[in-house]
Amino acid sequence: MQKEDFVTLYDFNTWANQRTLDSCAALSPERFTKDLGSSFRSVRDTLAHIYGAEWIWLERWRDRTAAGLPSAADFPDFESVRSRLTAKDRDLVDYVASLTEDELKGIREFKTLTAGTLSQPLWQCLQHLANHGTYHRGQIATMLRQLGTKTVSTDLVVFYRERAQRAAS
Q1: Long-range contacts (CB closer than 8 Å, 24 or more residues apart) made by 93-102
Q2: Which H or E run contains 10?
Q3: What is the pTM for the complete model shown?
Q4: High-pLDDT (> 90) share of the chain, %
Q5: Which domain holds residue 88?
Q6: Which of 12, 47, 94, 148 is most buried, with most CB under 10 Å away?
Q7: Which residue pairs from 22-31 have beta carbons closer than 8 angstroms and sit at least 24 positions apart in sequence?
Q8: What's the Cα-to-Cα distance from 157 to each of 13, 23, 71, 127, 166, rounded to whole Å?
Q9: Number of structural domains found in the chain
Q10: Please, which pLDDT band fits residue 1 given cuts at 50, 70 and 90?
Q11: Cross-strand partners of 107
Q12: Buried b (16+ CB within 10 A) or exposed e, 35-71
């Protein structure tokens, strides 16, 4: 993949996060935090995990070491999740846009929370993180269905089609 592919991938990631947030906006506080027995208990906890994972990887790429992931309790309501995830999405898009082809190919060394110090090409980390978000947004879609709430598609092909439609307009 080349830089422009990653720019597109992170535009998609932001688009999908925002569509997911929009789908969650109408949930009452009780439904937003209801334990649904998923890998992260609730819609809120899963959104907090998406935020935390994206934040911690961005910290690593900026050569900073985070002591841990934020707790779901750090997000007392929907708006706290939306504002932090939206700001972090902008930071990720800006970070990816600033990269050079050589930086994408470069090996990054970082300290993990559980596995010690690892090293990997940056491009692999970027692919992983986008895939990670897709996985958890799918979990949120299932949770929303369990709660009787309408969901919207966050499939990559829908993103491409919407982008092509906007370009044609």
Answers
A1: 93/7, 93/10, 93/11, 93/14, 95/58, 95/61, 95/62, 96/3, 96/6, 96/7, 96/9, 96/10, 96/126, 97/7, 99/3, 99/6, 100/3, 101/2, 101/3
A2: helix 3-24
A3: 0.95
A4: 93
A5: 3-168
A6: 47
A7: 22/152, 23/140, 23/141, 23/144, 23/149, 23/150, 23/151, 23/152, 24/78, 24/140, 24/144, 24/149, 25/78, 25/82, 26/149, 27/78, 27/144, 27/147, 27/149, 29/77, 29/78, 31/147, 31/149
A8: 12, 19, 33, 17, 14
A9: 1
A10: confident
A11: 121
A12: ebebebebbbbbbbbbbbbbbbbbebbeeeebeeeee
The first and second tokens of residue 97, run together, are 């846009």
Q: Which two tokens stand for residue 99?
A: 């990269």
Asked if the model's pLDDT at residue 86 lies above 90, the reply is yes
pLDDT at 112 (0 to 100): 87
Q: Taking the CB of residue 126, how many other CB atoms lie within 10 A of it?
A: 23
Give the model confidence (pLDDT) of 91-150 as tens digits. Answer: 999 999 999 999 999 999 998 888 889 999 999 999 999 999 999 999 999 999 999 999
